[in-house]
TrEMBL record:
Known pathway: tRNA modification; tRNA-queuosine biosynthesis
Record-linked HAMAP family: QueF_type1
Chain residue ranges for the region called Disordered: 1-25
Biological process terms in GO annotation: tRNA queuosine(34) biosynthetic process
Classification of source organism: Bacteria, Pseudomonadati, Pseudomonadota, Alphaproteobacteria, Hyphomicrobiales
Annotated compartments: Cytoplasm
Main location, first listed in the record: cytoplasm
Name of protein: NADPH-dependent 7-cyano-7-deazaguanine reductase
Amino acid sequence: MAIDASTLQLGQSSALPASPEEARLDRVPNPHAGTRYLARFTCPEFTSICPVTGQPDFGILVIDYLPGQWLVESKSLKLYLGAFRNHGAFHEDCTVSIGMTLVDLLEPEWFRIGGYWYPRGGIPIDVFWQTGEPPKGLWLPDQGVAPYRGR
């Protein structure tokens, strides 16, 4: 599968989208389709806006997936995640909608996302979503984010 690089955001000047709906996620062919491996993206400075108060929310996102035919292109993922900066949504909605969007785009063999959010109102909210049981034999390291203790 050849890649038409001119259709990707990679290597081109790209402005931060104003919202997740305006963002464009790019996918590229997986050169190791059929090989079982885990791809991980960690976003340690994820931000969104509380839809009620308008105050910023901060979290760490860890995205793990077993690719099928497609990989997410990392620059487009960075821009997509950055587009949440001014997006008003609850922690649960941000985490799960990101996961569902990536699953729809990539059609991975398996997917999980962990949203580790800093406290809002004194209570941290962590959100986890996955597409099913992890495949047997897939090396699945811990997501590496400690339970909340003043992260």
